[in-house]
Amino acid sequence: MIKMEGVSKSYSTGAPALNCVSLHINKGEFVFIVGDSGSGKSTLIKLLLRELTPTTGQIAVNGCELNKLKRRKIPKFRRNIGVVFQDFRLLKDRNVYENVAFAQRVVEIPTRQIRKNVPAMLSLVGLAEKYKAKPKQLSGGEQQRVALARALVNNPPILLADEPTGNLDPRNSWEIMKLLEEINKRGTTVLVVTHNREIVNAMRKRVITVKKGMIVSDEEKGEYIDED
Amino acid sequence: MRISTLMYTFNQGFKNIFRNKVFSLASIATISSCIFLFGLFYAVIVNFQYIVREAQSGVAITVFFDEGITDEKIKEIGEEIKSREEVSQVNYISADEAWESFKEEYLGEYADGFENDNPLEDASNYEIYMKDVSRQSTLVQYLESLEGVRTVNRSDITADALSNVNILIGYVSAGIIFILLAVSIFLISNTVTIGISVRKEEISIMKLIGAKDFVVRAPFVIEGIIIGIIGSTLPLIAVYYIYNNVIAYATEKFTVLSDILRFLSVEEVFSTLIPISIAMGVGIGFFGSFSTVRKHLRV
To answer: How many CB contacts within 8 angstroms connect chain A with chain B?
Structure first.
């Protein structure tokens, strides 16, 4: 489902953000990518979303070779990937329903279909009652659930979550993780970038550790490895 | 594109105006100020041009003929003059008409002493009006070279003064248009820069979800066009009222100068000003929003 071969990414200044990274993630897997700040985790997500292009190496996501992907084909490619961010990135002037429906509208789903899909997705994340609320009326955990609903409403086969619990307290963090696990059980491939040690250690999933732009460990049912 | 997407796009364009009230008001105010200044300036300039054009059309060259010239020759000269490109109108004044006009204007009842004599019997002439008085010297040179022409009377000072005024209006117009454009671009780019920070996040979210460039751009462009239409309509209304009142005031207060100061009617000015201003407003709105969004589409 996700394949990276010898991928490096250098910015104009400083050391390379990623250095000859190779990894394979299969359909239906739940994978944690862990590492401290500046280790290259976010660059990896941006490469998978085709926000960035690698300096060297090949990336294939969902059968699509990103190096050969033309600019005009990027929107169609991204429709197969759901994405969740640490800072939620919700539209503050729109309510919960509109934030989720927005993802369907921009990919031109008919309104009739949107009216069915959005409430169903809000029920899945436990926010059916709060569909009229604006983001600022919600807690951090609720906002992240809205972001999750938005990421999943188009039924993407892959979900990328960049520090999804970074702004949440432990209780809300666990709720989001349980949701991600539930989504994974339904068949979605889930890739979570995090440095939340407790969650990684407790969930016993595949853990890929990135350090200074390189993969230093890749373990099934792994644990968070300290920098030291 | 689906009809529902199209409707959503229009809907969002309208809603965006209210969502970002401060940005919308700032944009409308910026466009309005520029178009207001343009409208005032345009009204002044077209009236100046009108007054000068009117004055120019009254400047005539008079051509007198050699003694004993035949009517056929006079006709021939007349045809040659009419064929000149710079000539707008040629009137033939016969010796009798010239004498009648002179009597009426200067002699009144004292003209009776002349009985049937016409002291101006060699004064038949052509009265020539030009399209452009700046070409008077070329025409005079040509007229003087014609066989059968005795004298060419003209007012060099009036012609020169009017063509100088015309040139001056041209330079002043170009200068003011340049300054207005520079100020407009500066103000609009500043307003757009403020708008970008508000929109950056929204555009990047749309792009990451998989929206095509057109779907991302369309609501912003519609918003820009609506702002442009509002921003150009408001100053047009203001200029309309100001123009009407100023013309009414000037016509009433300066009746002495009514022969010189003749203004264009509000309809004449606005028949051109309305389409230009709306095109400017829509153009600024369209290109402003188009270029703003474009910078952020490469996500």
So the answer is: 52
Closest chain B CA to residue A104:
B209
Give the model confidence (pLDDT) of A25-34 as tens digits. Answer: 999 999 999 9
Rounded Cα distance, A141 and A97, in Å: 16
Question: With an 8 Å Cβ cutoff, are B210 and A78 in contact?
Answer: yes
Question: How long, in residues, is chain B?
Answer: 299
Cβ B209–A91 below 8 Å, yes or no? no
What residue ranges define each of the domains in chain A, with the CATH number in brackets?
26-53+80-219 (3.40.50.300)
CA gap B281, B51 in Å, rounded: 29
φ and ψ of A27, to 5 deg: -60, 135
Domains and CATH numbers, chain B: 3-55+161-296 (no CATH), 60-154 (3.30.70.3040)
Q: How far is CA A198 from the centre of its chain?
A: 19
Q: What tens digit of pLDDT does each residue of A185-222 get?
A: 999 999 999 988 889 999 999 999 998 889 999 988 87
**Which residues are paired to B138 by β-bridges?**
none
Tell me the whole-structure pTM to 2 decimals.
0.70
- Residue ranges in chain B modelled with pLDDT below 50: none
Given CB atoms, is B208 within the 8 Å cutoff of chain A? yes
